[in-house]
């Protein structure tokens, strides 16, 4: 058979499809699973290997706060998180900070400079954060007593975010 | 193989050559470093602003501050 007479259309079609697939995969692969949003169930924290002890979260309103030592707004958010912890811990709020530093020493030096009394765990392998797909640093998720995500905070915008936290926590605790 | 088909295959293959890398928000430690900031040296900025103003009779428009961590 003379190859020069082969119909080129199937090859062209296949090539085009391949190109579209390659480009689509490169562009959208990180978003295939999709970020966790309001109304979703938060991933089971016990199923993820996190460094540090997990507090008892059953029947509690929980703030899961993702932070890293290199993130400026995370430093600003920690005093507010501590304030919320002191104010609402007795009423049933648990703040769980999830550190995303690759090195544990970075987290330790951050916590030495910004001491807090709420539990901090480390997701050094980024397993949890890959499931959650946060959009920016810091990001926090407020879960209701059933473990459903009710509010998502992307970034920390000072007093504005603080007031939103106060309002949302009061709503979920009552 | 005919020329158009060969061209299409070549175009499809170039998709594999892209060097784009999506850096996730939690992987931006290096980008968030102080040395990545465009405004890290106030003296250099002042000099550049002065030259820019002298040449163009205009100032500002240097973009937003901050590094590449994408925080907030």
Show unreliable segments of chain B.
none
Distance between the termini of chain B: 52 Å
Low-confidence parts of chain A lasting 5 or more residues at pLDDT below 50? Answer: none
Identify the CATH homologous superfamily of chain A. Glutaredoxin
Helix tally of chain B equals 2
Radius of gyration of chain B over all CA atoms, rounded: 21 Å
Task: Using the coordinates above, name the CATH class of chain A.
Answer: Alpha Beta
Helix content of chain A: 25-40%
CATH architecture field of chain A: 3-Layer(aba) Sandwich
The average pLDDT of chain A is 90
Write down the domain tally of chain A: 1
| Biggest sheet features of chain A | 5 strands, mixed
Q: Tally of extended strands of chain B?
A: 0
The overall pLDDT of chain B, averaged over residues, is 80
Structural class of chain A: alpha/beta
Biggest β-sheet of chain B: count, sense, barrel? Answer: none
Please give the radius of gyration of chain A in angstroms.
22 Å
Strand content of chain A: 15-25%
How many strands of chain A? 5
What order do the strands of the largest sheet of chain A run in, or round the barrel if closed?
A: 3-2-1-4-5
What attributes does this structure have?
heterodimer; A: 174 residues; alpha/beta; Glutaredoxin; five-stranded mixed sheet; 5 helices; 5 strands; B: 72 residues; mainly alpha; 2 helices; 38% helix; 0% strand
